[in-house]
Structures are given as structure tokens and as C-alpha cells.
Amino acid sequence: MTPLLEARHVTKRYGTNTALSDLSMSIDTSKPAITAVVGESGSGKTTLARMILGLVPPSEGQVLYQGQDMARLSGPQRRQFRRDVQAVFQDPYEVYNPFYRVDHVLTTPVRNFNLASSRAEGRTMIENALRAVGLRPEEILGRYPHQLSGGQRQRIMVARAVLMKPKLIVADEPVSMVDASLRATILTSLRKLTDEMGISIIYITHDLATAYQVSDNILVMYRACVAEAGAVERVVKHPQHPYTQLLISSIPQVSTTRDWLDDEGDQKTAATPSPHGCRFVERCPVAMPKCSTTLPPLYRTEPARAAACFQHEASPELPNGALNEVLTPTA
Amino acid sequence: MNAILKVEGLKVEFEHPLGAVKAVDDVSFALLPGERLGLAGESGSGKSTMALSILRMIKPPGRITGGRVSLDGTELSALDHEGMRHLRLAGIAMVPQGSMNSLNPVIRIKAQFADAFRDHGLKLTSAELETRVAELLRTVGLPPHVANLYPHELSGGMKQRACIAIAICLRPKVIIADEPTSALDVVVQRQVMETLARVQRDLGCAIILVGHDMGLMAQFVDRLGVMYAGRLVELAPIAEIITRPRHPYTQALISSLPSLEKRGAMQGIPGLAPLLRDLPPGCAFHPRCPRAEARCTTEKPAVREVAPNQQAACHFA
Ligand SMILES: Nc1ncnc2c1ncn2[C@@H]1O[C@H](COP(=O)(O)OP(=O)(O)OP(=O)(O)O)[C@@H](O)[C@H]1O
Ligand SMILES: Nc1ncnc2c1ncn2[C@@H]1O[C@H](COP(=O)(O)OP(=O)(O)OP(=O)(O)O)[C@@H](O)[C@H]1O
Ligand code: SF4
Ligand code: SF4
Ligand SMILES: [Mg+2]
Ligand SMILES: [Mg+2]
């Protein structure tokens, strides 16, 4: 079956800076799942999201929607794409017009996409979408943006995405502006969208702990490349890339064992970085001589995961383009 | 041991056409010299207001309506404008919420230090300034050339360390850091917190860390205060908070943290934080509390000692 979206050898450059390097993956929404994309600031997460959303064209390679190059979609195909794939961004405040009630951001797509045949039906759809994200319509509708909390505004954005009955939601840092307890509430409602409504989600975050909680698969990005990918349970419990290991050991745990600050953590090593070598070499505690000169490919260390690190070179290489083989569907 | 900072019955209100918002409602605690105290709670619970009111930095429509704060025995309300200005930075230094994004974008880092020194009437020659700034930057692990950069030339972690360096430039006795790492990724967060810990050791000062990440609190602070709707509802040594939280809200905060042990274990706190100008009667937490009983809807629980060094405001704690 043709996947909903496919990235083929996609590279994005800004000037001389490579924001995303030769990524291939497809998003097959026939088996709904949540895929987390995790990595430090500047690793290329938003660049990936914006290309999937068709907001920026790749410098090299192609993004395909239902087998068609995104750059060459027909009018109706483009319209269908704008229903099938929805975006939720970090700070929704700018989406709201302060002079309109929040209803406006919900009624507009209903009208523009003729989602309902009557006003009453539209209203019911909106109420259902709000309930799907854990909001009570009577507490939300009729209010102005400033009368709602940041978490409520963010959930309305998710509700707006749900209204379109999309196949995929791309959520870029949807909870990084809200506090820990609301984070849990919002992410739990995202999980329900996948489990109960069959919507696939790409969840972009720098918070590996929430990624572990809600997603099925994970891509760990480091400086424009995939460092590690696979089933989230395996990757988080037994990280195989030194960068993933660093990320996990950096998370402060609720525990009476206080070793977080004593940890050696991130140390600069003596290795000299080279444009051709492993991008993590300057920070890698286990770097080998060849790491400075050669870029490690992804090695398939287990059926459901791969790591781009020479420590695993005994495992077979995962051909570029076969990333999906290690991302397991849940259903 | 005598407290370095003492807060007694502090109250802050914001005027609002529909009624006063009690953002800090009768909060008391004492900070010991060299101690690390955390202040945790949901967004809007009054943490930043609390922190700002210690330094009397509340602006209208906000107003301190009661309470006393003293530093090392000196009552702050007795200080005049000049005395208060001197106390900021030299006595108590604040790293405000979002400060890394409020560095002045058009002036170099060095000049931001110069501003702080000038504010305190310190006249330094440019050679002296150079040396002091380099030394302060080194304290927070930044190379000296950072002094000549503009804020946008620094990464988030570097900006946050620069803010810490500015805050400590007059060797304060207390540092108040309001969510110093919430915009940073975990690797950088740990570097910044290591910096803060080192600075604290060097200065021998106490720290109040404001935030909502219970994992960070568990790893960093000695004691934790939990705020709900403007009140300090629990205050206890961090190990007690983790192993035996007394207040149901503290328990809920801990459960909302995503664990790395078990998937699907993360639980948000049901319902919404209450409107501060229209609090539920009785215990303000009762509409969301899994342990609420009839009494909770009418009778406001007082803060009481539930164990040595441990206080909580819950009828059943
Ligand atoms: N419009 C742009 N113009 C120039 N450079 C850009 C642009 N957008 C992104 N970049 C660069 O591309 C790289 C990847 O950026 P990207 O925004 O994808 O990172 P990210 O992983 O989303 O980071 P963050 O966690 O900070 O959001 C960075 O080096 C960034 O500076
Ligand atoms: N300038 C202001 N005018 C009116 N109300 C204010 C003002 N500043 C704060 N408040 C109110 O005081 C209460 C406490 O706010 P505060 O910023 O102290 O919370 P916080 O716990 O620091 O939250 P966060 O985690 O979001 O930083 C909130 O209900 C807020 O609406
Ligand atoms: S390839 Fe080498 S430098 Fe890169 S992560 Fe693996 S061991 Fe470290
Ligand atoms: S007093 Fe009652 S409602 Fe309040 S926290 Fe205790 S049990 Fe819950
Ligand atoms: Mg981004
Ligand atoms: Mg605050």
C-alpha cells in the first residue's frame, strides 16, 4: 500500500549549514502509531516537521504524499493533504486573534472545509472534538483567548486538528510551554487520539521522558542525522547510541538516590571532529580512531532498532531508506 | 542554626475588577544558611509572585498586603529605597523567570555586568571591569571572550549561565532562581544546575529554586515547599516528600512526572487549577482531591506540623 507520506533521501540546507541530512522514512497510517522525534536544540526536528508538512521544500530528495511529489500536487490533492495532515505547534497563542472568541479557530476550518452540513452539526463536531482532548465545551466556547490557560489553548489546537479527522498529526513541542501536570494531561489525550480514533502522530520534543510515556517508536536525532531509532521500550531501556545514553542519564529522577549532579555527564573528549566522521565524536566517551574519519551508518542491532555507531558494526547495516523496518506498528 | 532568610505570613494581592486575587496567601518559611530550598507547584500557583515579593519587587496592580521578610536579622520593610536597592544582588540575588530571554539584545554581555555594578554604585575602571567579568564568567564555566558577545550569539545554556554570573556579581547570601532551566534540554539543564551548585559552594550562599519538575527538585534541593493556589500546602525535607508525601496535591505532582520505568504511568492532575479570586470553599484543592471528604468542602485546613520538620495543610495529613 502507498504510505500516506514518504521522505526519500531528504536533505535540507540553510546556506552551508545542513539542518537535516539524507533522511528516508515513510509514514504508513494504516497502522496508527505515535512516533517521537527527540534530540537537542538545533538537531533538525522542526526542519523534519516542516518538510513533512510541506512548509519548506527539501534541498535534495523528495517528500511524497500518497506517492505524489509534494511540490507537484494538484489543487484537489493539496486540499486533501491539508485535511489528512494537521500540525500543532509549541506556542499556540499567535494562532488566536485576541479580538475573536476562541470558537473562531474551530468554526473557521469547519466552514472552509465544508465539514458539516448544518450549523448544528458543526457545533456538535466542535463539541466532540473538544471532549476528545479532555475539555468541557461549556467551559471553553464563548471565551476569549486571554480568558483561558495556556494548557487549554494548546488543547483547543489539538481539538482543531482532530476536527479535520486527519490521518496524521505532526505535533512540534506541543507541551514544552506548559507545566508538568498539564503535560501529562495533554499527552494522555494525544495517546487516546491514536488508540481510539486511529490517528497517527509524530511527536517532536526534547523531552525523552514524555516521549517514552506516549510513543511507540522513537527517532533520536543528533546534528541533522538519526543517531538511534526503534521501538521506544527497547531504545529507552537499553540505549545503544552514546548520545541516547547521555540523554537518558541526564534526566533527573524522582528518587532518594541523588547521583544526578555527580555524574560525569557530558565531557569534551580529545577527539578532533571532522566533517566526515561521526557527529558525536567530540562528546563521545567511547570514540575510536575511525570515528573521526568515517560517518557511521545505521546498524540494525535488533529486529526493532538501529543505531548509528561503530560499536555495533558487527550487526548488519540498515540500508538508508529502510528505517521503517525498525519502526514497529502497534496495531 | 539561625535562619538566613525568614518569611512570615507573607501576602500578595493583585487587584482585579472582579475581586482581589490572592496570589500569595499567608506564606511562612525559614531558609537556613547554605540550604537549597525548592518551591514547586502548578502554573499560576504563585511561585514567581512569592519569589518577587521576597525582594519587594511586586508592581501594581499587585501589592504586598501583609507579612514580614528578614535577611540575616534585618527586616526588609524597614529598609528605604536605597537600602533595598543595595540588598538586591548584594544580599539576595534573583535570576527571574525567563531572564535568559530578557538580556538586553543590543548590548554586549560585558556591558550588562557593568550596568549591574553601576546600579550598586561601584565605579570600576575598564581594566577592573574586564578582570571581574572574566572571573565571574569563569565561575559559571564560560570562556572570557563571551564578555564581548551579544546575547543572540550565545546558546540557551550559555545565556542562562551568563544570567547566573550577573546575579552573583556582588556575592549574595541568597540566590533565588525562578525556573532557570525550563527552556533547556536535559543535557544543558544538568550543566546549568551543576554551575549553580558550584557557585553556591563557592559563595557559601543559600538557594531558593522555583520550578515544577519534581525530578529536578528531587535531585537538587534539601527541602521542598509545595504551593497550591497561593498557599504553601506542604514543606518538608525532600526525602520525606518523595517517600511519604503528606499532602494529596504533592502526591499528584509526583505522579504527573513521566517515569522512565513504566510506560503509561504518567497521570495528569484532573481538573483545572482554581481561579485565585474565586477559590472553592474549605480546602481549595477539594474539587480535584482523591481523598476529599465532606469536611474538606467547608473547613479550610490550617498549616500544621505533621512530623518534626514537616508541615502540611490537609485535614488528613
Ligand atoms: N529558516 C532557517 N534559516 C536558517 N537556518 C535555519 C532555519 N531553520 C532552521 N535552521 C537551522 O537548522 C538547524 C536545525 O534547526 P531546527 O529548527 O530543525 O532544530 P530543532 O531540532 O527543531 O531545534 P529546537 O529544539 O531548538 O526547536 C539549526 O542549526 C538551525 O539554526
Ligand atoms: N501582573 C499581574 N497582574 C494580575 N495578576 C497577576 C499578575 N502576575 C501574576 N498574577 C496572578 O497571580 C497568580 C500567580 O502567578 P505567578 O506568576 O506567581 O504563578 P507561578 O506559580 O509562577 O506560575 P508559572 O509556573 O506559570 O510561572 C496567577 O493567578 C496570576 O494570574
Ligand atoms: S561512532 Fe564512534 S564517536 Fe560515534 S557514537 Fe559511536 S563510538 Fe562514539
Ligand atoms: S484537606 Fe481534604 S481536600 Fe484538602 S487535600 Fe486534604 S483531603 Fe484533600
Ligand atoms: Mg524545533
Ligand atoms: Mg512563575
Major sheet: arrangement of strands of chain B: 6-7-8-3-9-10-12-11
Oligomer: heterodimer
Which radius of gyration of chain B do the C-alpha atoms yield? 20 Å
Helix and strand composition category of chain A: alpha/beta
Q: Helix- and strand-based class of chain B? A: alpha/beta
User: Given this structure, which CATH class of chain B is correct?
Assistant: Alpha Beta
Largest sheet of chain B: 8 strands, mixed
Number of domains of chain B: 1
Gross morphology of chain A is globular
Q: Which whole number gives the mean pLDDT of chain B?
A: 92
Averaged pLDDT of chain A, please?
90
What is the terminal separation of chain B in angstroms? 27 Å
**pLDDT below 50 for ≥5 consecutive residues: which ranges of chain B?**
none
CATH fold group of chain B: Rossmann fold
Describe the overall structure:
The complex is a heterodimer of chains A (331) and B (317). In chain A, the strands form 2 sheets. Chain A has an 8-stranded mixed sheet with strand order 6-7-8-3-9-10-12-11, sandwiched between helices. Chain A has a 4-stranded antiparallel sheet with strand order 2-1-4-5, with helices on one face. The two termini of chain A are 16 Å apart. Chain A has a domain of 92 residues. The longest helix of chain A has 18 residues. In chain A, helix 3 packs parallel to helix 6, helix 4 crosses helix 6 and helix 6 packs parallel to helix 7. Chain A is α/β, with parallel strands linked by helices and 331 residues long. Chain B is of the alpha/beta class. Chain B has a single domain, classed as 3-Layer(aba) Sandwich (Rossmann fold). Chain B is built from 9 helices and 12 strands. In chain B, the strands form 2 sheets. In chain B, strands 6-7-8-3-9-10-12-11 form an 8-stranded mixed sheet, with helices on both faces. In chain B, helix 5 packs parallel to helix 6. The two termini of chain B are 27 Å apart. The model of chain B has no long low-confidence stretch (mean pLDDT 92). The interface between A and B is large, with 46 and 44 residues.
